[in-house]
């Protein structure tokens, strides 16, 4: 019987040697290790054996079963690994082929810049506010201390809106500064810190360098202890965050009717680092924003007592910031809607 | 204002380099836009330096000190071999001379003693014989057999002007042998003046600023005039009708003048500043205006009746032929200078042709007046006639300047015209200037600037600028000089203090003021969410012009819009930007069309305001809109998908559904078929707020006619425009639904119903019939065709059911399913299949 058993084991292992596929392996198992098969048959013959022989043969049968099962497991593992390796090899792709397009939308570069500005100033306690794009002449100029028939009005070529006779003069706002009056009148006598982004309009020919429509971000802070030092510090902080810690800026006197003193802020030319180039018109500096201490007349028009309250205001153009940041050569791309431009940001 | 440093130096010593001076002026508010170097070089490494390395020379070029010198014609001989050439022998000091060959038509054989600009071998100049502007370095040459070792130069070759007709002749007293750059080299600062800086519209005004900035004393002698003629009294008369219009009117008289060109140095300065020399009389008037900031006007005294000048308003119907030979129709809005016969000059703006100085003029009445700035400004605007004089009067001229400037001008006139100056002036000064006094406290300086300055320090800073200061305990009493009309209050003085202290030196501090209450603008935040969602859906944000035209609106709409619904510009710059948009789509559709010429897939959105005029209010409503425009292929063409299908109505609707869901509005709105001629009648919808039944906007595929009008190059385009303000008002915050653990049971049901039954109707019936155990239902297939009867279709829905506390049994589900089938049958006439 044991002989017979050893014969079966030998034959089974020999057959196993030749197996190369999982399928024939399964067949082998059903031949040798299933409930029906040569070993099972031998086991059934155990009943004829003596009580002394029975345990010895039983042990032997179990040993053969284990040996065959072990061989089976090892080969199965090997074959599965080989098969997987073949599949993986088959699935190999040219990883340099382009991926499946996932068209992404983008925000307009002006919106992106506005958000950056808004982020910086909201960290400094400023709230974003909006005011109308169509304004009365009074809000756009008069309340901002532009006297009628004053040359200061030449600084801003204005689109006037046709109105019925007898109506007050109405303009496309030339700057976001009328929002100062709106904000002050809403919040006075509480202190206020707002920034006012929005579209502005000037009666200018559209060229590579000038636009009839542009965005501006106005900033306004009014309170009882606000100094020009605070204006400088705030704008320095803005410049550092917007242009990086290596950005150098300078403050120089300027003129806006609604601020006194008035400031123009220049940044060291990003292109030539101050050596002089076309972009900075050979001055080494680029104008980045205008600012100043709110004029007493404007504070008064906003509802604050200029003897008690003071404040600062500033205005900047996000398109200009983007132009300087990215080296954009022509401002007309901004409103062209041309995807070849917009998809670059 | 262009400021030649040679001129400025007459009034203040300049100790800084031109570049340093330019920086100092800029930092004091007089922004130097550019520096012109006439024959001289910029400081090495200066940003202002023109680029001399390029192949094209800049406007002005430096002259080598050794190689470009003042020369003198010793003799001029005819060229032996060419009629048109001459051979001048030019001396340039200490017995040195060379012969040059020239074709200059203004050099004549036999000339002697004329002073010229001589360039020697090696000099780098501008090539006068080249069509294009380029450099030339002089080399010894032979012209028709005669050696030429140098060149007598034209203005073009020196980079002085475009003049190349003949060579430049220098004044007779030019120092022979001197480097030309030392003789006429100059540096001109071009200062961009803001409107408040009228005081710096003159050399003297800039000199005052330079003195204050650099601490150098101002050299400002009171102009003296040698008046040898009889007194002006009784020989000239002035009447001012309204001192408000003309606070001061001053007149001087010069007799026996000879009209001729002004001296070279005067012409040169005028040119450097940008004015054209005309004649000695006119040039003196302009020269003094540039020097002192006081415009003046010269009348031919013999054309003024009774030599009587009258400042008054023009009468209706009066006319004047101005110096530019234009007939001007005047109005009582304008101030004129008249004589008893009639109008002779447009005050402060332009003189009249009849009384202008001509070659025959012998006697000159010179007027220097102060005019009402707004009136001058309105006149300039009404007649579109800006001038150097009006520019100064609009901004305000020093009321003390007229007699000073007149004396300066009269003396110059005497020198350059040979005339005799009458003694005295007629000075009608009915509204004498009153010096203003302002008290400035140290506390105010601290409050506004954040620095501690003593009264003495403040006074020190201000007195440099000409303010008279009386130092008190904690304040300064300041007397404002007459040339500072811009200073009217303490805040103005604070700016002067800051300017002189230096903006750069002010501290950089952060706001220490209490943080104001933080207001949150919900709409801003919502707008952000809208844009972010659309971007996440793959749409590109665009911004189009808010200014459009009715033609563009008509292109989209197909019919002419009602113009009365639109706001129009009074003064548009172009017809296509003359109307304020009422909707975003007309311009956005144009942008879509433009992009389709370049792109295979275009998905755009815009958020912005539109303008709706209100009959009862001055200002329009500015509602916020959202517009989308999609066309082209759904996906970018790639090796994965060579021919992706076209974007359609459902792409657009899908994006909107995502947005509505994100805003929490989806449950409050429905889509109903639209009736809008711009759109495909069967593929467009209104977005309706279900509760109110009001429309929030429209979406759909453009009608083929609309597509044709837009010139769209694709066979399908879908657009939408929504009232974003209204949409945002419906926003609901997200509401959390408990997620139940027991497993869901899924059931599919095919609803076969007439095609008139909408998917939404079927969806609602299922929802209503299924009750609370229905967790979700979605349409996954729409089918028409056999075996479904004609005019019917199959809508296949997948439903999921779930209970909070148990696994649902088949019996429960079947009961619900039967109920759904019954309701679909009774309400929609639908049959069902599993």
Give the averaged pLDDT of chain B, no decimals: 94
Looking at the chains present, what oligomeric state does this protein adopt?
heterodimer
Rg of chain A (C-alpha, Å): 42 Å
Kindly report the average pLDDT value of chain A.
92
Q: Kindly report the spatial arrangement of strands forming the biggest sheet of chain B.
A: 30-33-34-38-37-36-35
Q: Give the number of domains of chain A.
A: 2
Give the CATH architecture of the largest domain in chain A. Answer: 2-Layer Sandwich
Shape summary of chain B: elongated
Helix content range of chain A: 40-55%
Q: What is the CATH fold-level name of the largest domain in chain A?
A: BirA Bifunctional Protein, domain 2
CATH class of the largest domain in chain B: Alpha Beta
Structurally, the number of domains of chain B stands at: 6
Helix content of chain B: 25-40%
3D architecture notes:
The complex is a heterodimer of chains A (345) and B (834). Chain A has 345 residues and is of the alpha+beta class. Chain A folds into two domains: 90 residues; 234 residues, 2-Layer Sandwich (BirA Bifunctional Protein, domain 2), CATH 3.30.930.10. Helix content of chain A is 40%, strand content 19%. In chain A, the strands form two sheets. Chain A has a seven-stranded mixed β-sheet. In chain A, strand 3 and strand 4 form a beta hairpin. With 834 residues, chain B is α+β, with helices and mostly antiparallel strands. Chain B folds into six domains: 65 residues, Phenylalanyl-tRNA Synthetase, Chain B, domain 1 (2-Layer Sandwich), CATH 3.30.56.10; 117 residues, Beta Barrel (OB fold (Dihydrolipoamide Acetyltransferase, E2P)), CATH 2.40.50.140; 200 residues, Phenylalanyl-trna Synthetase, Chain B, domain 3 (Phenylalanyl-tRNA Synthetase, Chain B, domain 3); 70 residues, 2-Layer Sandwich (Phenylalanyl-tRNA Synthetase, Chain B, domain 1), CATH 3.30.56; 208 residues, Bira Bifunctional Protein, Domain 2 (BirA Bifunctional Protein, domain 2, 2-Layer Sandwich), CATH 3.30.930.10; 89 residues, Ferrodoxin-fold anticodon-binding domain (Alpha-Beta Plaits, 2-Layer Sandwich), CATH 3.30.70.380. Chain B is 26% helix and 27% strand. Chain B contains 21 helices and 42 strands. Chain B has a seven-stranded mixed β-sheet, sandwiched between helices. In chain B, helix 6 crosses helix 7 and helix 14 runs antiparallel to helix 17. At the A-B interface, helix 5, strand 1, strand 2, strand 3 and strand 5 of A face strand 2, helix 8, helix 11, helix 13 and helix 14 of B.
């Amino acid at each position: 019987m044991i002989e017979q058993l050893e014969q079966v084991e030998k034959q089974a292992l020999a057959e196993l040697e030749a197996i190369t596929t999982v399928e024939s392996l399964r067949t082998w198992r059903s031949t040798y290790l299933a409930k029906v098969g040569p070993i099972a048959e031998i086991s059934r013959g155990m009943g004829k054996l003596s009580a002394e022989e029975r345990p010895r043969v039983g042990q032997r049968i179990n040993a053969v079963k284990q040996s065959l099962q072990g061989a089976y497991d090892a080969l199965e593992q090997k074959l599965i690994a080989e098969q997987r390796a073949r599949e993986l090899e088959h699935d190999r792709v040219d990883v340099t082929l382009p991926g499946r397009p996932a068209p992404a939308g983008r925000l307009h570069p002006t919106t992106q810049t506005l958000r950056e500005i808004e982020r910086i100033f909201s960290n400094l306690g400023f709230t974003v506010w909006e005011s109308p794009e169509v304004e009365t002449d009074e809000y756009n100029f008069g309340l901002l201390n532009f006297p009628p028939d004053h040359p200061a009005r030449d600084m801003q070529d204005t689109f006037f809106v046709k109105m019925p006779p007898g109506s007050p003069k109405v303009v496309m706002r030339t700057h976001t500064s009328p929002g100062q009056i709106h904000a002050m009148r809403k919040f006075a006598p509480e202190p206020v810190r707002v920034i006012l982004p929005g579209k502005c309009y000037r009666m200018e020919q559209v060229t590579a360098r000038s636009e009839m429509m542009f965005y501006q971000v106005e900033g306004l802070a009014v309170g009882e202890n606000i100094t020009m030092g605070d204006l400088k510090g705030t704008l320095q902080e803005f410049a550092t965050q917007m242009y990086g810690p290596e950005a150098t800026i300078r403050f120089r006197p300027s003129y806006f009717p609604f601020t006194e003193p008035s400031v123009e802020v220049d940044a060291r030319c990003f292109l030539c680092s101050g050596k002089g180039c076309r972009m900075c018109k050979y001055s080494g500096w680029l104008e980045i924003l205008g600012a100043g201490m709110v004029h007493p007349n404007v504070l008064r028009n906003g509802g604050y007592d200029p003897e008690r309250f003071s404040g600062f205001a500033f205005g900047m153009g996000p398109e200009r910031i983007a132009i300087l940041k990215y080296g954009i050569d022509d401002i007309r791309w901004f409103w062209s809607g041309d995807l070849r431009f917009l998809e670059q940001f | 204002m262009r400021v030649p440093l040679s001129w400025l130096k007459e009034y203040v010593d300049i100790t800084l380099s031109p570049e340093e001076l330019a920086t100092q002026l800029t930092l004091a508010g007089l922004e130097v836009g550019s520096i012109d170097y006439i024959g001289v070089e910029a400081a090495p490494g200066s940003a202002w330096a023109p680029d001399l390395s390029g192949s094209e020379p800049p406007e002005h070029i430096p002259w080598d000190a050794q190689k470009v010198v003042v020369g003198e014609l010793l003799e001029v001989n005819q060229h032996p071999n060419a009629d048109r050439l001459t051979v001048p022998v030019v001396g340039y000091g200490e017995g040195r001379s060379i012969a040059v060959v020239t074709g200059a038509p203004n050099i004549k054989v036999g000339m002697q003693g004329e002073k010229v600009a001589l360039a020697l071998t090696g000099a780098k100049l501008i090539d006068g014989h080249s069509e294009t502007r380029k450099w030339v370095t002089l080399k010894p040459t032979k012209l028709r057999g005669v050696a030429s070792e140098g060149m007598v130069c034209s203005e073009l070759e020196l980079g002085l002007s475009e003049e190349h007709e003949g060579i430049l002749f220098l004044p007779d007293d030019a120092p022979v042998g001197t480097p030309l750059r030392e003789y006429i080299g100059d540096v001109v600062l071009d200062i961009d003046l803001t409107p408040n800086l009228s005081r710096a519209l003159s050399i003297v005004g800039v000199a005052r600023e330079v003195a204050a900035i650099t601490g150098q004393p101002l050299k400002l002698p009171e102009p003296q005039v040698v008046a040898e003629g009889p007194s002006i009294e009784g020989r000239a008369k002035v009447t001012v009708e309204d001192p408000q219009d003309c606070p001061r009117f001053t007149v001087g008289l010069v007799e026996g003048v000879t009209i001729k060109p002004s001296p070279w140095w005067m012409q040169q300065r005028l040119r450097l500043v940008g004015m054209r020399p005309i004649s000695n009389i006119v040039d003196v008037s302009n020269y003094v205006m540039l020097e002192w900031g006081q415009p003046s006007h010269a009348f031919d005294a013999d054309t003024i009746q009774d030599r009587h000048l009258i400042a008054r308003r023009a009468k209706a119907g009066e006319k004047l032929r101005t110096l530019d030979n234009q007939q001007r129709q005047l109005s009582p809005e304008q101030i004129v200078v008249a004589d008893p016969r009639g109008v002779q000059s447009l005050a402060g703006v332009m003189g009249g042709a009849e009384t202008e100085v001509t070659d025959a003029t012998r006697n000159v009445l010179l007027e220097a007046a102060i005019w009402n700035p707004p009136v001058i400004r309105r006149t300039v605007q009404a007649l579109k006639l800006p001038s150097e004089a009006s520019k100064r009067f609009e901004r305000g001229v020093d009321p003390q300047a007229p007699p000073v400037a007149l004396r300066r001008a009269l003396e110059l006139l005497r020198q350059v015209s040979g005339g005799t100056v009458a003694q005295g002036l007629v000075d009608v000064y009915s509204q004498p200037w009153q010096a203003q006094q302002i008290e400035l406290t140290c506390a105010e300086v601290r409050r506004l600037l954040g620095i501690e300055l003593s009264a003495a320090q403040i006074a020190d800073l201000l007195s440099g600028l000409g303010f008279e200061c009386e130092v008190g305990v904690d304040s300064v009493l300041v007397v404002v000089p007459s040339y500072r009309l811009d200073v009217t209050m303490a805040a103005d003085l604070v700016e002067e203090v800051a300017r002189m202290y230096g903006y750069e030196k002010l501290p950089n501090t952060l706001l220490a003021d209490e943080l104001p209450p933080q207001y949150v603008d919900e709409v801003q935040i919502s707008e952000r969410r809208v844009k972010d969602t659309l971007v996440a859906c793959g749409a590109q944000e665009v911004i189009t012009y808010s200014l459009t035209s009715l033609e563009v609106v008509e292109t989209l709409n197909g019919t002419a819009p009602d113009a009365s619904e639109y706001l129009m510009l009074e003064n548009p710059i172009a017809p296509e930007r003359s109307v304020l948009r009422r909707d975003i789509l007309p311009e956005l559709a144009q942008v879509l069309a433009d992009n389709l010429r370049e792109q295979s897939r275009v998905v755009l959105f815009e958020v912005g305001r539109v303008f709706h005029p209100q009959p009862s209010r001055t200002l329009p409503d500015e509602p916020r809109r959202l517009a989308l425009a999609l066309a082209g292929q759904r996906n970018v063409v790639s090796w994965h998908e060579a021919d992706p299908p076209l974007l359609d109505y459902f792409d657009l609707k899908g994006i909107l559904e995502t947005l509505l869901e994100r805003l929490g509005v989806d449950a409050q709105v429905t889509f109903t078929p639209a009736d809008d001629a711009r759109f495909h009648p069967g593929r467009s919808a209104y977005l309706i707020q279900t509760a109110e039944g009001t429309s929030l906007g429209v979406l759909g595929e453009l009608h083929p006619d609309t597509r044709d009008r837009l010139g769209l190059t694709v066979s399908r385009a879908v657009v939408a425009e929504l009232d974003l303000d209204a949409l945002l008002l419906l926003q609901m915050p997200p509401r959390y639904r408990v997620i139940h653990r027991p497993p869901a049971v899924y059931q599919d049901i095919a609803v076969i119903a007439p095609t008139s039954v909408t998917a939404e109707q079927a969806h609602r019936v299922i929802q209503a019939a299924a009750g609370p155990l229905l967790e979700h239902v979605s349409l996954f297939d729409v089918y028409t065709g056999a075996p479904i009867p004609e005019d019917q279709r199959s809508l296949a829905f997948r439903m999921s059911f779930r209970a909070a506390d148990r696994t649902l049994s088949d019996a429960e589900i079947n009961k619900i399913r039967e109920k759904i089938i019954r309701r679909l049958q009774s309400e929609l006439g639908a049959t069902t299949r599993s």
